[in-house]
Amino acid sequence: MEYSYGTKMTSGSLMFSKPLFENPDILFRTGGYQHHGEYPWSGYRTIDRGLLADIQFPSRLGSHTLSCEGVWRELGCMNRTTAFAVREQAGHSLKYALKHVFARDHRDNNILPNKGTLFTCTQELAGVDDKVLGFVKHNMEFQAFKQLPLSTVFQLSLGGGIMKPLQSGTEVSIQDHFFLGGPLTLRGFNINAVGPSSDGNALGANAYWLGGLHLYTPLPFRIGKGGFDDHFRTHMFVNAGSLGNVNFDSNMKEDLQRLAETYRLSYGLGIVVRIGGLARLELNYCVPAQVRQGDSSNVGLQFGIGVTFS
To answer: Where are any strands of DSSP class E within the chain?
Structure first.
């Protein structure tokens, strides 16, 4: 049983798990959950109530998770200023999905690595009631870390995703769209504030790509190896990415070319802090060098804390 409460997100779950075939590496889980979230960048709030069953197992290539899920979703507007493009999607819907997640993590630390690689790939096949039709969704992420002389670490990050409605000419719910931007992903832009928008509300899109180059060095006043300052690194980065809609019925080639050409670019430097093995804190001075119409950029200091990063 788990329960978490926050100012923007509240969730609770009751899960049952059991190893299969007397093998602790093969784990079956089932249970239910409720999640309440607010998404101010898009002007909506949601309440999701769902049932979930999954099985986790290893292979020679990495770990796999196969899951099936049924969710009753309620989408509502946060205030009167919510854009009509979001408001028209308000109401109840039922979503059922099959999902496969593959992960291969060879990093020596998941918060502040020195070496290793990470590759994750997610495929989702979702069906929704008559109000919002289903879709096929693919998403991938790759990270590589290389330790250099003088305790310097180089990081390369790549990511991308695309989704396609099951029925041509239909729209996917904003809850399932890709979003881009934030202090741990596309730095120099506000959280999920890149790409299509309406009346100040981010709408997300059905395709994106993201890349980054990072250089980590010890603090200039480092006391000594193995000390408290090993939890701190100076951080220099260059991030690029784009988010947009691809029409699979027509002009798909042109849409993909536009997605590549209308990139956003930012660079900066700052400090990264490893908070135990729990989270990563970044304080960066960011310079958005390439901003598109509708984006919400963040010039100057940007603070972020989380477990995942790009």
So the answer is: 2-5, 9-20, 23-39, 44-58, 63-77, 91-105, 116-128, 135-148, 152-165, 197-198, 201-202, 207-217, 232-244, 264-275, 279-290, 300-306
Measured CA to CA, the distance from residue 248 to residue 258 in angstroms comes to: 14
Q: CA–CA separation, 163 vs 247, rounded Å? A: 10
Q: Contact, 280 vs 310, CB < 8 A?
A: no
Query: Cα separation of 277 and 293, whole Å?
Result: 39
pLDDT in tens, 115-130: 999 999 999 999 866 5
Report residue 9's pLDDT band, with 50, 70 and 90 as the boundaries.
Answer: confident
Separation in Å, CA 256 to CA 112, 206, 241, 300? 34, 11, 13, 31
CB 44 within 8 A of CB 65: no
Please check the confidence at residue 132 and state whether its pLDDT lies above 60: no
Residue 51 pLDDT greater than 80, yes or no: yes
Q: State both tokens at 172.
A: 């996917």
The pLDDT value recorded for residue 130 is 54
pLDDT in tens, 279-291: 999 999 999 999 9
Read off the pLDDT band of 248 (50, 70, 90): confident
Angle among Cα 42, 69, 166 to the nearest 5 degrees reads 70
Structure tokens at 91: 């109401």
25: helix, coil or strand?
strand
For 278, the token pair is 């729990």
Q: List the one residue out of 271, 266, 200, 193 whose CA is nearest residue 233.
A: 271
Q: What is the C-alpha to C-alpha distance for residues 58 and 130, in angstroms, rounded to an integer?
A: 37
- Per-residue buried b or exposed e for 207-222, using 16+ beta carbons within 10 Å of the residue's own CB: bbbbbbebbbebeeee
